[in-house]
């Protein structure tokens, strides 16, 4: 169905340059990965296609784990560029890509961080979001996370409407989870059960320290991948991951 350029897929007015339709799962993964790497591996950002594909398909910090081919990522990039959510860098021997989320969606940094994390890791409680976002942005406390989520849920219709929803409490769970609406309404019946609290003796500080160590390792790996790709281009060799 053809939509008027002034409305969203739900019939709401568009908010600035934000999407006129719901994102596909692949588009959300590509966008979320660009948002993540902009903060965790800034020295390798904007990303090349090869590095972006690796980030989309990594086994850690992803829900669900995906296996997107280069062609699928390129198709998602083309669609996101048409929606002004992704920009292509010029002036380099290798094409690079960066997100334009905050400007296109017209949300503050903290809200963009929360939406990016929800796109990458699925529904989470405010406490889980605060912990998982540690590498992106240090929220003062869980209350501040809740405040930004409530703001996204109460987003006015003239700005495009709600971008997140608070899900019904799962059986046995103490807290409700939040989910993004960038890919459309959430089917609660398809969601994985919320992790049970108290299943690990690790403290929040322990987990934060672990995420920092993982971030350091990912930064090192991304830098090495970028150097290898640049060397391959300089020598006229096939790029890593390509025949």
Please, could you describe this protein's structure?
This protein is mainly alpha-helical. The chain has a domain at 108-184 and 203-209: Arc Repressor Mutant, subunit A (Orthogonal Bundle), CATH 1.10.10.10. Helix content is 44%, strand content 7%. It has helices at residues 25-40, 49-56, 70-82, 101-105, 109-121, 126-132, 142-153, 204-235; strands at residues 47-48, 86-89, 96-99, 164-166, 178-180. A hairpin with a 6-residue loop joins strand 2 (86-89) and strand 3. It is globular, with a radius of gyration of 18 Å. The relative contact order is 0.15.
Question: Main attributes?
Answer:
single chain; 243 residues; mainly alpha; Arc Repressor Mutant, subunit A; three-stranded antiparallel beta sheet; two-stranded antiparallel sheet; 5 strands; 44% helix; globular
């Amino acid at each position: 169905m053809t939509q008027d350029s002034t409305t969203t897929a739900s019939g709401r007015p568009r908010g600035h340059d934000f999407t006129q339709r719901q994102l596909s799962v692949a588009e959300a993964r590509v966008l979320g990965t660009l948002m993540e790497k902009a903060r965790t591996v800034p020295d390798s950002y904007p990303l090349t296609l090869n590095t972006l594909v690796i980030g989309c398909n990594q086994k850690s910090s992803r829900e669900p784990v995906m296996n997107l081919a280069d062609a699928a990522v390129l198709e998602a990039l083309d669609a996101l560029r048409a929606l002004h959510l992704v920009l292509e860098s010029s002036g380099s021997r290798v094409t690079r890509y960066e997100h334009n989320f905050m400007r296109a969606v017209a949300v503050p940094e903290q809200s963009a961080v929360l939406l990016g994390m929800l796109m990458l890791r699925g529904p989470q409680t405010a406490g889980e979001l605060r912990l998982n976002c540690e590498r992106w942005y240090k929220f003062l406390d869980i209350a501040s996370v809740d405040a930004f989520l409530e703001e996204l849920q109460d987003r006015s219709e003239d700005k495009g409407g709600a971008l997140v929803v608070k899900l019904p409490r799962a059986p046995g769970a103490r807290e409700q989870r939040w989910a993004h609406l960038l890919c459309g309404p959430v089917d609660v019946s398809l969601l994985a059960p919320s992790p049970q609290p108290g299943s690990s003796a690790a403290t929040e500080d322990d987990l934060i320290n672990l995420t920092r160590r993982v971030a350091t390792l990912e930064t090192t790996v991304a830098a090495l991948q970028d150097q290898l790709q640049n060397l391959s281009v300089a020598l006229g060799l096939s790029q890593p991951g390509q025949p």
